[in-house]
Design the sequence.
């Protein structure tokens, strides 16, 4: 057991730290869920990519630098420590890219990954439907075979599609075999959001910005070359990296230590911290530290060839609750000023989505109980 | 960078577990509580033969010269199996606080205990210990055993101690304190894991309303939260073992205490009335966790040490 970095890792850390110190904008960029903010975040992604810092673990030919998993975590820690902008390309680089690497054709990899790495093409996820939230396998949007044109015709509706208001491409599951039940007969599609037949209707989130959107599909043609994995195999393809979304990559491992440090700064700069806030600070710091060390444990296991598996669900419940509690403490510390909109209220409103997205925490607890503890599933139809 | 147990460390954990699983520590704990120390003393000797009290003792004092990581592994097993006796005091505190021949005695397996007021006002199991100490401001004296005090955990016999003669060769009592806290945290982790395992086993076989109670979400979610709490306390425990500074050791104690306490509350709740009986073994861990939560510093004491570290930073 050891938590020390190698000389190469220390050198990488120093390089990243130095570059971020010199280049992170002094003023926060405008919200990425506004037109101007989206463009500013895309420009930031392009700058990262020019330094080989947008996707450090990717191959060089796709703008990466073939960094190890450990170096990736080092990068993430430095990134959040520096207070660098949120990643507008997150859905693509963290959620979709691992699937393209595992299941995409070489042609798809060459076509999609470079522009994803530079932020030129930003991707939106399209999982949920009005009647398929936690029960994702009940989704109804359809894909009809079109042999004549060599592809599929999509119809239906997706919702809570993050980044879709301004993004360029989307990815999601559609029912390609109406006879098959639930998890069978689903296919994973990639589609440009300006395709004929797609209507994007932005939805204002709690913070007032259009962070997600509804997508309406009206006879949208998708060629075979934009199917990811085999037709009918979409559920397996999508779930092969679901662990990533819930665990390691959805919320950066570096994120919470930086936030806990800022909370400690806020505490120290508050002349008379209200009674009770000291406990909130200590617990937030302890939990952020736990999350950091847990991540090093996970990375060590993965580096030894282990798999994330259902541990991603353990992780997701923990960080999402930590994030809310940390921001609640900050607002308590701000006292009467807490109502004034600012970085802490922004962070607080953002944190409230954590226990919901990527599978609600109730679903995650079911997964922990059934797959890790081995408890029996509920009889069908009672859930 | 490899934040995982080595193969040797896993082997050590497994060998302790396989010995303890076969040695009926629950019977030893119940005898210990009832005033018959013989099975517990036998268990102490066996674990001493496996080198547990000698772990932190340097090799030139007859010890194993192991790291706090190995201490944590051993103490987790002791907590998991509810082994009675002053392990934290001997293998944690005194293995660092003593020097010279008295330290060699610890490595050889002498059962020893210590009170360190005000945080640890009573000496655990002093009536059984061959050597009793009292920590004073920066120093250490031998301890004269006084009146017994009943613990909420019937397997822990507390005693008042008064100062005797000064100890000639003192090691590093401050480091001993950190090791005692760390060892207590590890015991809590082991106790929490045990209660979770036993509770999961129970809800898989207990049926009500025609099905296993473990199939109800109301039960599942509580047990999932226990799993999550333990999974995120463990890295703090091992992180503190690698660098046992006050802030990180206290963070580990807070997290392990909270996680084990949650395991005890949920464990009792999902067992229902049977869990509330002394006869049922769960009771051993429920009362132990309550005692250990405050032993070698309450959660409030340790949160305050973390707060001090956080507010002192520039």
Sequence:
């Amino acid at each position: 057991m050891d938590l020390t970095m190698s000389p190469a890792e220390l050198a990488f850390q120093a390089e990243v730290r130095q570059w971020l110190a010199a280049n992170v904008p002094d003023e926060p960029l405008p919200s990425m869920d506004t037109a101007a903010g989206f463009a500013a975040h895309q420009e930031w992604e392009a700058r990262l990519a020019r330094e080989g810092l947008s996707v450090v673990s990717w191959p060089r030919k796709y703008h990466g630098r073939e960094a190890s998993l450990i170096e990736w975590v080092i990068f993430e820690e430095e990134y959040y420590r520096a207070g660098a902008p949120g990643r507008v390309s997150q859905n693509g680089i963290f959620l979709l890219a691992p699937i393209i690497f595992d299941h995409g054709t070489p042609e798809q990899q060459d076509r999609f990954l470079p522009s994803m790495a530079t932020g030129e093409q930003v991707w939106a996820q399209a999982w949920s439907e009005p009647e398929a939230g936690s029960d994702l396998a009940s989704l109804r949007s359809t894909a009809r075979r079109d042999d004549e044109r060599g592809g599929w015709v999509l119809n239906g509706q997706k919702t809570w599609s993050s980044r879709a208001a301004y993004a360029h491409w989307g990815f999601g599951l559609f029912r390609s075999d109406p006879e098959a039940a639930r998890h069978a007969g689903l296919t994973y599609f990639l589609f440009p959001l300006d395709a004929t037949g797609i209507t994007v209707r932005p939805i204002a989130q709690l913070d007032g910005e259009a962070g997600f959107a509804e997508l309406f599909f009206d006879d949208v043609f998708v060629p075979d070359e934009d199917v990811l994995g085999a037709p009918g195999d979409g559920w397996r393809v999508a779930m092969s990296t679901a662990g990533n979304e819930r665990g390691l990559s959805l919320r950066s491992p570096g994120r919470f230590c930086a936030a806990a440090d800022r909370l400690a700064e806020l505490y120290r700069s508050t002349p008379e911290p209200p009674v009770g806030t000291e406990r909130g600070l200590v617990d937030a710091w302890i939990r952020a530290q736990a999350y950091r060390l847990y991540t090093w444990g996970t990375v060590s296991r993965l580096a030894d060839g282990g798999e994330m598996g259902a541990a991603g669900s353990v992780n997701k419940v923990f960080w999402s609750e930590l994030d809310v509690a940390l921001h609640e403490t900050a607002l308590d510390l701000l006292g009467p000023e807490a109502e004034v909109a600012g970085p802490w209220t922004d962070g607080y409103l953002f944190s409230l989505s954590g226990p919901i997205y990527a599978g609600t925490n109730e679903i995650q607890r079911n997964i922990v109980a059934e797959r890790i503890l081995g408890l029996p599933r509920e009889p069908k139809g009672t859930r | 960078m490899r934040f995982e147990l080595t193969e040797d460390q896993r082997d050590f954990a497994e060998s302790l577990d396989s010995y303890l699983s076969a040695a009926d520590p629950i019977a030893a704990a119940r005898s210990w509580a009832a005033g018959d120390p013989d099975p517990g003393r036998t268990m102490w000797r066996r674990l001493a033969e496996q080198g547990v009290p000698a772990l932190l003792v340097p090799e030139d004092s007859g010890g194993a010269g192991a790291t706090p990581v190995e201490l944590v592994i051993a103490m987790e097993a002791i907590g998991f199996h509810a082994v009675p006796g002053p392990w934290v005091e001997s293998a944690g505190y005194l293995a660092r606080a003593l020097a010279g021949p008295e330290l060699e005695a610890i490595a050889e397996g002498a059962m020893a205990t210590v009170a360190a007021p005000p945080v640890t006002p009573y000496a655990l199991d002093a009536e059984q210990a061959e050597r009793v100490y009292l920590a004073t401001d920066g120093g250490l004296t031998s301890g004269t055993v006084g009146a017994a005090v009943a613990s909420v955990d019937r397997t822990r016999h507390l005693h008042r101690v008064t100062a005797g003669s000064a100890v000639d060769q003192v090691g590093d009592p401050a480091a001993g304190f950190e090791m005692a806290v760390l060892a207590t945290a590890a015991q809590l982790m082991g106790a929490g894991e045990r209660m979770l395992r036993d509770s999961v086993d129970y809800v898989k076989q207990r049926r009500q309303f025609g099905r296993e109670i473990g199939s109800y979400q109301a039960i599942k979610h509580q047990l999932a939260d226990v799993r999550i709490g333990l999974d995120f306390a463990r890295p703090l425990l091992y992180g503190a073992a690698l660098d046992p500074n006050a802030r990180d050791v206290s963070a580990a104690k807070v997290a392990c205490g909270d996680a084990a306490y949650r395991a005890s509350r949920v464990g009792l709740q999902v067992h229902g009335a049977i869990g509330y009986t002394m006869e049922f073994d769960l009771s051993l861990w429920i009362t132990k966790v309550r005692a250990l939560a405050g032993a070698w510093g309450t959660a409030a004491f340790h949160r305050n040490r973390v707060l001090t570290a956080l507010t002192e930073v520039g």
